[in-house]
Amino acid sequence: MSNIFDKIAEDRIQEALRNGEFDNLPSQGKPINLDYWASLPAGIRAGYMLLKNAGFLPEEVQLLKDMEKLREQMANCPDQEERLAMQRKLQETQLKYNLINEYKKQKK
To answer: How far is CA 37 from CA 19, 45, 48, in A?
Structure first.
């Protein structure tokens, strides 16, 4: 079964190469944080990857991205009041993330 997926993936990569979709990629990118994805069961992980590739993210994944962005902004923000506002937003986002995860645990 994986041979079919390998062939499909290889065909898509070759097609993208022919179409020049990889021509303007940066030479260095940020490393992918796989900690969250690795903790998911394989079936859910595959579904999330399909949704991600289609431009959709599960709400908790978007919240993780938002939290990381807020942390980076806070680290680079010289204004104390702005940092405090970002800290409050980070706490709200963290709370929402925790509530979603707690709800999912209770559903199981």
So the answer is: 30, 6, 9
